[in-house]
């Protein structure tokens, strides 16, 4: 009888261990949008991912030798670099009379090809200067143009098995695509598996957007940016509460990355406390 009891206790402990590990895996991994020069500092602080600038690493203007150097540097990194922001050049308009479809798709082709070589899966589409309305533009026509070019860019991304993830920006940065709700509508209209969504919680907080808008974005949500509303600082600086957003993310079973896209006064001193602060809120919600 004692053997059966001992065996039952052993099995229960194994089940509890596996269940605990499964629960841990549900918590999104944390990273930082910054230069790869900060790799070691952020690794020591507990972060898993780093997000660099796509234009900096992969744009056609980057020479082949410079690109090879970037790839070599990425492969030596301690953190994983699988996402990039800063997609399109400021001068490359995607709507209106200045939009040059051939130039856009040529740029995207080179960038996606290089992203694949480097192992970067997701390119975040913020690029406010490329997409915001200019004087005299008709918003409805601009939206139609944006959806059309986004679908074509997604086809290029598909060729290289990469993903474009459009990001919501706040009204002080973008007078057009400035809520997650709008981005979700665009993703639905583009209707392409290589065109998805980045939810930026800083921009949502900045404009007071309802966290429940994440629920509608859920089927398209592959990435997340975060910073505190106050001064766009690292989480924990003003001890802001992100739990309502995390609760919505949990409901849609979000398991992607959460990247700190914020300012630092002293990254070496602030990184670990910021990591611990946000991890505490995530654990409270996800577990």
Write structural notes for this entry.
- With 287 residues, the protein is α/β, with parallel strands linked by helices.
- It is built from 12 helices and 8 strands.
- It has helices at 2-25, 39-45, 54-58, 64-76, 101-118, 128-131, 139-159, 180-190, 201-206, 213-217, 243-251, 267-286, and strands spanning 30-33, 49-53, 80-85, 122-125, 163-167, 195-200, 221-226, 258-260.
- It has an 8-stranded parallel barrel, surrounded by 4 helices.
- The chain is globular, with a radius of gyration of 21 Å.
Topology:
Blueprint: H1 2-25, E1 30-33, H2 39-45, E2 49-53, H3 54-58, H4 64-76, E3 80-85, H5 101-118, E4 122-125, H6 128-131, H7 139-159, E5 163-167, H8 180-190, E6 195-200, H9 201-206, H10 213-217, E7 221-226, H11 243-251, E8 258-260, H12 267-286
Parallel strand pairs: 1-2, 1-8, 2-3, 3-4, 4-5, 5-6, 6-7, 7-8
């Amino acid at each position: 009888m004692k053997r059966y009891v001992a065996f039952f206790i052993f099995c229960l402990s194994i089940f509890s261990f596996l269940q605990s590990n499964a629960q841990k895996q549900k918590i999104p991994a944390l990273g930082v949008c910054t230069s790869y020069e900060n790799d070691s500092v952020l690794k020591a602080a507990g972060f898993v991912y780093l997000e660099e600038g796509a234009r900096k690493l992969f744009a056609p203007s980057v020479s082949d030798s410079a690109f090879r150097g970037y790839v070599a540097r990425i492969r030596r990194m301690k953190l994983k670099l699988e996402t990039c922001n800063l997609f399109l050049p400021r001068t490359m308009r995607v709507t209106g009379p200045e939009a040059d479809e051939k130039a856009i798709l040529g740029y995207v082709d080179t960038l996606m090809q290089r992203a694949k070589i480097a192992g970067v899966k997701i390119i975040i589409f913020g690029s406010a200067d490329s997409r915001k309305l200019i004087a005299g533009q008709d918003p409805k026509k601009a939206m139609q143009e944006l959806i059309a070019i986004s679908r074509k860019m997604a086809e290029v991304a598909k060729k290289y098995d990469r993903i474009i993830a459009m990001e919501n920006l706040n009204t002080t940065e973008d007078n057009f695509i400035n809520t997650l709700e709008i981005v979700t509508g665009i993703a639905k209209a583009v209707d392409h598996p290589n065109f998805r969504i980045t939810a930026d919680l800083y921009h949502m907080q900045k404009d007071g957007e309802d966290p429940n808008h994440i629920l509608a974005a859920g089927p398209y949500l592959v990435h997340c940016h975060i910073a505190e509303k106050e001064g766009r600082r690292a989480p924990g600086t003003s001890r802001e509460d992100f739990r309502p957003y995390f609760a919505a993310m949990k409901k849609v079973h979000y398991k992607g990355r959460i990247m700190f896209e914020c300012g630092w006064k002293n990254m070496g001193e602030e990184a670990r406390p910021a990591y611990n602060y946000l991890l505490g809120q995530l654990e409270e919600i996800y577990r």
